Every structure is written in C-alpha cells, then in structure tokens.
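[Automated response] Your request has been received and processed.

Submitted sequence:
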Amino acid sequence: MNVLIVYAHPEPQSLNGSLKNLAVETLRSLGHEVKISDLYAMRWKAMADAGDFSDRAYPDRLRYAGESKHAYLGGSQSADVAAEQEKLLWADAVIFQFPLWWFSAPAILKGWVERVYAYGFAYGVGPHKGERWGDRYGEGNLLGRRAMLSITIGGREPHYSDRGVNGALDDVLWPIQHGTLFYPGMAVLPPFTVYQADRLTPEGWEKAADAFRERLSRLFIDEPIPFRRQNGGHYDGQQVLKDGLGAGASGSRIHLLQAGEPAERPVGEIATTERRAV
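Generated structure:
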C-alpha cells in the first residue's frame, strides 16, 4: 500500500522527527511504499495569496476560491500545490505528524491544507441540491483513503478528558479530523498521541515507540471513527441532523453513528426525491 506522511516540525531531532523516522522504517518493513512531505525542509509556502495564481480569472480583486477553481480546472496551479495533490491521490493512507500547538496544527500545516485543498479538488465537488449539498463529509475526491493524526502534546492526558480543563481531545481535534480529513472523503482513524512530550524519558520513548509500531501495523485494519456521512440520509435539506438521531449524545458526539440507528444510504446514492428531479 502507499502511505504519505505529511510532517510539520522545524527540528529534525525532535520527538516528532523521531516518530516520523520510526513511521518510515516501520511502514517500509511492512512492505508499504512511503512518501514524505517534510514541510519545513521543503520551505513550504504557507500563505494562500495572489502569488498562487499565474493566470488570474479575476484580476481586479483576489477571490481566492474562484482563482483556485480556475487554476485547478485550467491546469495552471503552482507546481508545489499540484505535486502535493498528486501525492494525496497516490496515497492509500495519509499520516499527519505534528505537535499540537495552541490547540491546533502548526501554521505551516494549516497553510498546506489551505493551498493544496483547491476548489474542485477537495471542496466544491458534486451536485448541491436537496439533502445532497456536495460530495463532502464521507464522500469526495479523497474517498477510499485512510488518514491518521500522530501528534505530540505538552499537557497531561487528564487535561484532555471530558472534564479536563483543555476539553476532550476529540473535541479539540474535531476541526481537523472531521473538518479537514473527513470533509473530502478520507476515513479517519483515532489519533496516536504522546502526552507530556517535553518531559519524555528514555523509558517513555520506548513505550511510545512500541505503541506507535503497533498502531502502524494496523493502519489498514483498525476501524475508523464512525462519523456520519452527510449524504447517508441522516441529515435534512439544511444539513441538520434529523429528529430522533443522536439520542443520548451531545456536542460533536451526535455526529457519530450510534447503535440501533437506521443504516446510512450507500456512498453516492441519490435520494429518491432528488432522483425524480434529475
């Protein structure tokens, strides 16, 4: 299988660098092909701006989404963006290796998403009508790929529990896991985490390394987070969860499939009311 590692840390000798190297070694030993996007080493341009477009569709005022669509469909994207899109389409799984900084990913990784996720590639895909508002949240051009976050965290694990002061980790990572990875179609695995990263002892590293090797060995086996698909029939025409679903859950957890609920429609199926209108 093909695995892309998107790595975002400025220090090669960091814990993140060690986890990245371990992932490459482990995955290749398991027979997988591996490519790496080392964003700091690549000196990745994080700013999404007019410099991304050589052939402007709207020369008077920058309309980034419109220019992104024009460049993607017209084949005039910058070479660095096109190369990363090719890696994503090549990959069967994508691992994002980064430190959790201020409750999110480093700016350089956010910039990678903003530029690589072009209009027509990661969003603005599929018909928009009725209960189907585009091919997103479980559908899209990255459908069929798996994604996993591998993150280091300075705080303690209890800080990121349901009652922890920082909030539950699933909620902290919701914008990334649900919004950035699930949105264009990837199946998202539970994250691999190393807490108190700046206090890790040699013994702690060995324990973390063993756990990471085990997770990597199950990269194509483990069940993904059971996010509801937008077009699976559980959301109405306003993309709001229908009555009777999500009982007993709250917050972002209502958007996880729960036992006893109606099955979702197959991927790509058009609802009966929409089919009549076609």
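Summary generated for your ticket: The domain at 2-224 is CATH 3.40.50.360 (Rossmann fold). Residues 202-217 form the longest helix (16 residues).
If you did not submit this request, please reply to this message.
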